[in-house]
């Protein structure tokens, strides 16, 4: 056990290739300041990320993440808390506030003047943060500070952390929320940015304490207590709401999957067509709505469907069945058109595939018969030289059916009339010559 413990300590040790503590602190301190090139780089990155969100381009958004210098002050906050450097904490908070203000202002201006106002999927994805975003930011922050504390920097870590933690898209989405007057988008996106910032700072704080960096003394115990309480409040603000949102998303996903399985497995009634179904999750009571055409389902059948909800984890869901005439059922006509169109397309594709198969078979047969085609006049001259007593003959590819098989055989059928009767040896010689001449393995010679 001692050797095994030593093996684990050696493998997981962070002491090897450890950069000097002062160099790490100075490197992070340089990234805190937002002025000059850092500020202009931030503005350009915000414009790039806003355009990427506006046109729904993932590649452009990733590029903006790599350019963004927002990680500097966020890691500075975590480092300042880790080494009890109150001045660094204040400086990092000040510069982060400036960066957030500039980012919101830039993205809001862009979305106000942009001719594209529809919220695309890349933008909508940043409006509903969950606890998984907190985990991603936390582990990304761990990777970032561990790589930054090495003498030989791991070059692929920092870009990966920038992409994984995604600081730029949320702040740009918050700008879109301000520009469009949608406070829900603004609140969700800004909360996601807050989650990422707090978790990266927390990860930096933990690694700095783990590496045992030299700590300064706070001016007073009250300041130390205030800093500690602020850390806990920030962590609770991040963890509690995001955990609740994540829990609701998990429940919603499970409900939708169960509803899909229920519809696929249990709706198998004859003379009825399921036009569409809608699974609407609600934490109080979810609804599974079926829209049918065809013969109406009887009340007993509907009750039977409701009884089958329990094994699929849908016991608390309300089953609504819309059926009958279009007027009574309030069926979505567009959904019906789409369903019918899909069925017609599938039938047409199947029919075309069958016809293509038949055409290919006929084409192969034609190619086979053409490749085996022989010129009867040419055979006549050669056969007349070989067998001067030949009077009439014909040759053609034929299909021979066997009573024990449904698949016909292809043979070269040759009919000939001679002026005299030939021996078996002569007939065999004629068959061999025909095989050689026509390049057909199967020859059927009929002699009269």
Automatic annotation (TrEMBL):
Pfam families for the chain: DUF389
UniProt keyword Lipoprotein present: no
Coiled-coil features, chain-numbered ranges: none
Segments passing through the bilayer: 37-55, 61-84, 96-118, 130-148, 160-179, 185-208, 229-247
Keyword annotations of the record: Membrane, Transmembrane, Transmembrane helix
Protein name: TIGR00341 family protein
Upper lineage: Bacteria, Pseudomonadati, Bacteroidota, Cytophagia, Cytophagales
